[in-house]
């Protein structure tokens, strides 16, 4: 069984012989990226202004759509994580013999700093392309935020567009440290979207038990943030202070990605400040789970958990 999974996720000819380029690959050109993201942004912003024009302040019911979306993203992310992990191990095994002449001391060195001139082909770039395509699967989350009348919908749309553009740059310029970024992001997506599916499914069943606190999602986001910061520092150290004279591949794209990450960090900190404010006021803590009718109730001494009837009223209010 293990051999079969390893073959299909790391040794299949389509994976080993993958080459990034415009030929026979979906959304692999600059025009396709720009057009697709522009159309998505226009759709999301138009939907937001249409709801404002209609005077709609209440959330739009989405039914099981957010739960099914979370399940799909979690499943795809799990496949990408396992495939990237197996392909990375196979790539290290097959190329380790050449590291001595490139002054690469360890697998971590290779993961953080691709040699200059690295071509976007082979196993790890296949999964980088799969990760890039999977980012389009995340775009409906911004539409859910608009329909559920969440805070700062335009910022959410911009964040989703930036998260699609970043893996495109990884592929286009063979950017260093992308393997670690894919592993960390895909694992976080499995946990976060699996959690979101669970709470949406619990709400659909009318489960009276309180779900785990919203810090599960926030904790994954904080962990992913610190992982990205550590990887950025590692790339800087190896590019400017390492023994290799040639530096790291894709350092220009890395600099542009750093600017995008700074913008995403600002959006995250704004969301985190809002989340902490709600906890400080001891209100019902809402997790940004796209399942807008789901609220997480914190038990306090002398206060009982809401009954099913009261919880239904809370859903209608929010």
UniProtKB/TrEMBL annotation:
UniProt-annotated location(s): Membrane
Bilayer topology annotation: Multi-pass membrane protein
Transmembrane segments: 33-55, 67-88, 153-171, 177-204, 216-239, 251-273
Alphabetical GO biological process terms: fatty acid elongation, monounsaturated fatty acid; fatty acid elongation, polyunsaturated fatty acid; fatty acid elongation, saturated fatty acid; sphingolipid biosynthetic process; very long-chain fatty acid biosynthetic process
Segments of skewed composition (Basic and acidic residues): 307-318
Sample GO molecular function, one term: fatty acid elongase activity
Start and end residues of each stretch annotated as Disordered: 298-318
Alphabetical UniProt keywords: Fatty acid biosynthesis, Fatty acid metabolism, Lipid biosynthesis, Lipid metabolism, Membrane, Transferase, Transmembrane, Transmembrane helix
Assigned GO CC terms: endoplasmic reticulum membrane
Protein name per the record: Elongation of fatty acids protein 3-like
């Amino acid at each position: 069984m293990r051999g079969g999974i390893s073959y299909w996720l790391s040794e299949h000819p389509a994976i080993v012989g993958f080459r990034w380029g415009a030929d026979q690959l979906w959304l692999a050109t600059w025009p396709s990226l720009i057009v697709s993201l522009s159309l998505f942004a226009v759709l999301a912003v138009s939907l937001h202004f249409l709801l404002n024009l209609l005077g709609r302040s209440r959330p739009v019911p989405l039914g099981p759509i957010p739960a099914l979306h979370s399940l799909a993203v979690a499943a795809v992310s799990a496949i990408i994580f396992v495939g990237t992990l197996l392909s990375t191990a196979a790539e290290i095994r097959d190329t380790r013999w050449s590291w001595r002449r490139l002054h690469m001391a360890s697998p971590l060195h290779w993961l953080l700093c691709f040699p200059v001139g690295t071509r976007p082909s082979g196993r790890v770039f296949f999964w980088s392309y799969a990760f890039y395509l999977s980012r389009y699967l995340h775009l409906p989350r911004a539409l859910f935020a608009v329909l559920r009348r969440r805070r700062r919908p335009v910022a959410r749309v911009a964040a989703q567009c930036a998260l699609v553009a970043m893996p495109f740059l990884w592929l286009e310029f063979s950017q260093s440290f992308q393997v670690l970024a894919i592993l960390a992001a895909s694992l976080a997506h499995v946990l976060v979207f699996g959690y979101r599916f669970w709470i949406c499914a619990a709400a659909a069943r009318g489960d009276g038990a309180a779900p785990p606190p919203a810090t599960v999602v926030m904790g994954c986001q904080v962990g992913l943030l610190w992982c990205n910061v550590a990887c950025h520092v590692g790339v800087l150290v190896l590019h400017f202070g390492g023994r290799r004279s040639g530096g790291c591949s894709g350092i220009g794209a890395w600099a542009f990605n750093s600017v995008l990450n700074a913008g995403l960090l600002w959006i995250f900190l704004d969301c985190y400040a809002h989340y902490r404010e709600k906890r400080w006021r001891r209100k019902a803590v809402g997790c940004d789970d796209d399942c807008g009718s789901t609220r997480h109730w914190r038990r306090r001494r002398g206060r009982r958990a809401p009954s099913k009837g009261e919880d239904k009223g809370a859903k209608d209010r929010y």
